[in-house]
Amino acid sequence: MSVSEPIRLAVFDCDGTLVDSQYSILASVHAACDAHDLPRPEAEAVKRIVGLPLKLGIARLWPDQDAEAHAVIAGFYRDHFDRLRDAGNVSEPLFPGVLEGLAAFEDAGWLLGVATGKSHKGLLDSFAEYGLAERFVTLQTSDTAAGKPSPDMLLRAMAEAGAEARATVMIGDTTFDMEMALNAGTLAVGVAWGYHETEELLATGAHAVASAFHELPAAVEDLMARR
After folding, report:
1. Within 13 A of 214's CA, how many CA atoms are on the CB side?
2. Residue 2 pLDDT > 70, yes or no?
3. Is 66 a catalytic residue?
4. For a disulfide at 65, which of 26, 69, 124, 209, Cβ 3.0-4.6 Å?
5. What φ, ψ does residue 78 adopt, rounded to 5°?
6. What's the burial of 56, exposed, middle or buried (CB within 10 Å: 0-12/13-18/19+)?
7. In angstroms, rounded to a whole number, what is the distance separating the alpha carbons of residues 182 and 55?
8. Is the peptide bond before 149 cis (omega within 30 degrees of 0)?
9. pLDDT of residue 89
C-alpha cells in the first residue's frame, strides 16, 4: 500500500522577511514619542522589537511606562500608521527575490502561509500592492492568536493547512520567529537580510540561515531530506 506524501507547509514572517517596513515603523514610533513627550529610541532599538505584538514591543521600548500608557502609545502608533498609508506615505518594498522564491516553493509542491505580529488588516494592506494575499493558504496575525514566540500562530497555520510539524518550516528574520518554530516543533530557517543578526538566529536555534531569498527553497529541501 502506498503512503501519501505529507502536506508541506512553508510559513513566512512578513516584516523583515517579505517586506522591508522598518522606515515606516520607525516614523510611526517617532511620531508616537513626539505626541507623548517621550525620548525617541534609536532605529536599532526599534528594529529589535519588530515582530512582537505591538503592546509588548512598546513595553520593551519604554519599560518605565505603565500598561495604560503602553496601550495609549500603541493606539496612537496604529492610527498614525493608518494615516501614513491613507496618504500614500508607507514604504514597504518587497525584498529582492521574494516573488521568484515564493513561486519556486509553490512549484516544488509547498503550501504557503504567513505568521506575523501585524494585524490582519495591516497584513492585507502590506500585501495589496503586490497581490500576495491569495498566494497563502493561511494568514496568522496578532489579532487572532498569541504573539511570538508563542507557538500559537504556527500551530493554527498547520491546523488550517492540514500539515504536521515534521513537514513544516518557519522562515523569518528574528529570534522570535526561531523561538516560535522550535516551540511548535517545526524547522526554523532564518534570513540574513532582516532585523536580527545571523549569529543571533543561529544561537537561538535556527537550523539554517539564508543570505538571499533565492537560497531558501534549496536550503529548506536539504533540511527536509535530513529531518
Report:
1. 3
2. no
3. no
4. 69
5. -60, -45
6. middle
7. 23
8. yes
9. 87
**Looking at residue 142, what is its pLDDT?**
87
Q: Is the dihedral of CA 198, 99, 28, 81 positive or negative?
A: negative
C-alpha grid cell, residue 140: 496568522
**Single-letter amino acid, residue 76:** F
**Contact between residue 198 and residue 40 where contact means Cβ atoms under 8 Å apart:** no
In the structure grid, which three cell numbers stand for residue 173, read together? 528574520
- Selecting among 15, 20, 152, 173, the annotated active-site residue is 15
- Enter the C-alpha cell of residue 169: 518550516
Cell of 208: 539554517
Cell 515606516, located at residue: 24
pTM for the model: 0.92
Identity of the amino acid at 129: E
What is the spatial distance between Cα 184 and Cα 155, in angstroms, rounded to a whole number? Answer: 7
What pLDDT does 3 receive? Answer: 54
- Number of Cβ atoms within 10 Å of the Cβ of 151: 22
Cα distance between residue 119 and residue 54, in whole Å: 9
**Grid cell 512578513 — which residue?**
14
125 carries an active-site annotation: no
The pLDDT value recorded for residue 85 is: 87
